[in-house]
Write a structure and sequence with these properties.
Structural class: mainly alpha
Strand order of the largest sheet: 1-2-3
Order of helices and strands: HHHEEHHEHHH
Oligomer: single chain
Radius of gyration: 28 Å
Largest sheet: 3 strands, mixed
Strand content: 5-15%
Number of strands: 3
């Protein structure tokens, strides 16, 4: 027996999780109007349980600020929605729970990031190494393309090949002449190790 689509949708809409999502959506539509744009950007409504609205905040400062305004916010939410809320709970605990919801700095934006595709240029010409003009074949950077290690020495050689390939096309640090990611040179003018040494001494 096939049931009608409306019957199936009716069953889905009556499930508690679906109802909670609809209630959160309803509260979200008036949230920024009630708390203000700035506070709305620093908060995220994530659950309703036992007539309590749970709100994640970006910092403990926002928790403190919004707790002081909790009763005022609650009255305005009750006036604008049909959801019977009795309390609001603010916490930083769920702020970074879902990485897709919170914008974070990507790994590629870190100054020490090295693109995994580097290292396939011929040896002996990069980094101003003209002393040796013979061009060696490019070293594959992908660990999967190198033979697996059978003993510690071959494991070290495999690792050394990968590191050489990665650092081969990198510019040199003007202070220690070591291959350095471009992001570090752009940020500090020298490599991260030289920067750390300068800050310590």
């Amino acid at each position: 027996m096939l049931k009608s689509l409306n019957h199936i949708l009716g069953k889905v809409e009556n499930q508690p999780l679906w109802q909670e999502r609809q209630e959160l959506q309803q509260l979200l539509s008036c949230w920024s109007e009630i708390v203000g744009t700035k506070a709305a950007q620093q908060t995220r409504l994530y659950a309703i349980a036992r007539d309590t609205l749970y709100v994640a905040t970006s910092s403990s400062v926002w928790v403190q600020d919004l707790k002081l305004k909790r009763h005022q916010i609650l009255k305005q939410l009750q006036a604008k929605s049909s959801i019977p809320l009795t309390d609001i709970y603010f916490s930083t605990a769920q702020w970074h729970h879902d990485a897709t919801d919170s914008p974070t700095t990507s790994l590629s934006e870190h100054p020490s990031y090295i693109d995994g595709k580097l290292g396939n240029s011929p040896w002996g010409v990069a980094n101003g190494a003209q002393g040796e003009n013979e061009e060696l074949p490019p070293v594959p950077l992908s660990p999967a393309s190198l033979p697996t290690a059978k003993n510690p020495q071959s494991a070290f050689q495999r690792w050394a090949l990968i590191i050489q390939a990665r650092s081969h096309s990198l510019p040199l640090c003007p202070q220690c002449n070591c291959p350095t990611p471009e992001g570090e040179l752009h940020r500090w003018g020298i490599c991260a190790l030289c920067t750390a040494k300068q800050r310590q001494g």
